[in-house]
Amino acid sequence: MDYRFLGKSGLKVSVLSLGAATFGGGNEFFRAWGQVDDAGASRMLDMCLDAGVNLVDVANSYSTGLAEEVLGKALRGRHDRVLISTKAFFPMGEGPNDQGASRLHVIEQCEGSLRRLGTDHIDVYHMPGFDAQAPVEETLYTLNVLVQSGKVRYIAYSNFSGWHLMKSLAVSDRYGWPRYVAHQVYYSMIGREYEWELMPLGTDQGVSALIWSPLGWGRLTGKIRRGQPVPEISRLHKTADAGPPVEPEYLYRVVDAIDGVARETGKTVPQIALNWLLQRPTVASVIMGARNEEQLRQNLGAAGWNLTAGQVAKLDQASDQTLIYPYWHQRAATNWGVDRNPPLSMVPALK
Question: What integer is the mean pLDDT of 267-288?
Answer without folding.
Answer: 97
